[in-house]
Write a structure and sequence with these properties.
Blueprint (H helix, E strand, L loop, with lengths): L2 H12 L3 E6 L4 E4 L1 H7 L3 H4 L4 H4 L3 H11 L7 E6 L5 E11 L2 E11 L1 H36 L6 H33 L8 E4 L1 H18 L2 E6 L7 E4 H20 L4 E9 L3 E8 L21 H4 L8 H11 L4 E6 L3 E9 L7
Parallel strand pairs: 7-9
Antiparallel strand pairs: 1-2, 1-5, 3-4, 4-5, 6-8, 9-10, 10-12, 11-12
Helix pairs in contact: 6-7, 7-11, 8-9, 9-11
């Protein structure tokens, strides 16, 4: 083997794409280790065999059939899906000698992650459009009613203005969430942190005060277990407040689907860190979704949650913030019985790396 051939063989073997070579009759001449793993075959057992004897994917075989039966085959590209739901972009590159087909190189590049991101983004745009449309429609309706003469009734006017204010705040929170997503996509941290020593119980009480009207709509109870002598903790107040709002707001929405229920917030002193648990008695999360709920844009199936709203970014942002503060978060849940979010925060802030 010449130096050139060894170099070529090394380049093919080290490539992160699956590469397969065929002669003009469609018999396998070469394949790299990625192709072996992809199709679960061994090169020593398939070299010299025709493609129809080697591969078990009908779409891939039909694609090769189309190429080899063509009178004047040219370069082709196609997206194929394997039985395990992985998606690949397949490039067919003909090798021509004297204007005649002399062989074929197939290059397969996995596109599964890109396809999943594309699907998630489409769903995300739909969710965001819905989330914006609802408060805007409400604001527009109440403003029109006020302009038509509702100002004459002070009580009605005050009630309408309160709704408009609440819906405006909802739009502000949504906009902030979208900005946080942009920040987290562009950098390791969600935002620059402004640390200060605080009492975690103050953060919890302030959050519950903001969310109490929402909880009362569903006749939900709050229960807080946090010692009065809990040590101070070094955090960014705005960011950790957002964490509590996101988690407790979710607990309210998904517990509210069952009617009456309880949301419990527990804080434990673990010496070097605090452990916080937010427990609800809501509809729970299906087991199949538990390892995905912190993914950006992911939402539990709407049929299961009866479409309580949301963009699929709240828990992702929550996880980013907690990790930026040096903590960790996990979830435990059982369908129909409720959910428990458990996260930790180091008392002295994140350790510098």
């Amino acid at each position: 083997m010449s130096a050139y051939e060894r170099l070529l063989e090394g380049a093919i073997e080290c490539n992160t794409d699956a590469i397969i070579g065929f002669n003009k009759s469609g018999k396998v001449l070469l394949l790299n280790s990625i192709a072996e793993l992809l199709f679960e075959i061994k090169r020593e057992k398939v070299i010299g065999k025709k493609y129809i004897e080697v591969f078990n994917n009908d779409v891939f075989i039909e694609y090769l059939d189309e190429f080899f039966k063509s009178a004047s085959p040219g370069s082709l590209e196609k997206i194929i899906e394997l039985p395990d739901d992985r998606v690949f972009s397949v490039f067919l590159v003909p090798l021509v000698k004297g204007n005649k087909l002399d062989g074929l190189i197939v290059i397969m590049r996995e596109m599964t992650d890109l396809r999943n991101i594309e699907k998630a983004m489409i769903a995300f745009v739909g969710n965001v459009s819905h989330e914006f449309r609802t408060p805007l429609t409400s604001i527009k309706g109440f403003v029109e009613t006020l302009l038509e003469g509702a100002f004459s009734d002070e009580e009605v006017c005050r009630r309408f203005l309160q709704v408009i204010n609440d819906e405006t705040n909802r739009l502000v929170r949504l906009t902030v969430s979208l900005l946080d997503v942009t920040s987290s996509l562009c950098s390791e941290k969600v935002v620059k942190m402004n640390y200060e020593l605080v009492n975690i119980s103050d953060i919890i009480n302030n959050t519950l005060e903001k969310l109490s009207p929402f909880a009362q709509k569903y006749s939900l109870e709050f229960e807080v277990s946090c010692s009065s002598d809990m040590p101070l903790i070094l955090v960014d107040v705005d960011r950790i407040t957002q964490v509590f709002i996101n988690l407790i707001d979710n607990a309210i929405k998904y517990t509210g689907l069952k009617g009456k229920g309880k949301i419990t917030i527990q804080v434990f002193d673990k010496h070097e860190e605090l452990e916080i648990r937010i427990i609800d008695t809501g509809v729970g999360i299906p087991e199949k979704d538990l390892n995905k709920i912190f993914q950006r844009f992911y939402r539990v199936d709407r049929g299961y949650t009866q479409d309580v709203g949301g963009t699929g970014i709240g828990l992702s942002i929550t996880k980013d913030i907690i990790e930026s503060l040096g903590g960790k978060i996990r979830v435990e849940s059982e369908s129909g019985k409720g959910t428990k979010f458990i996260f930790t925060l180091p008392r002295k802030g994140p350790v510098s790396k």
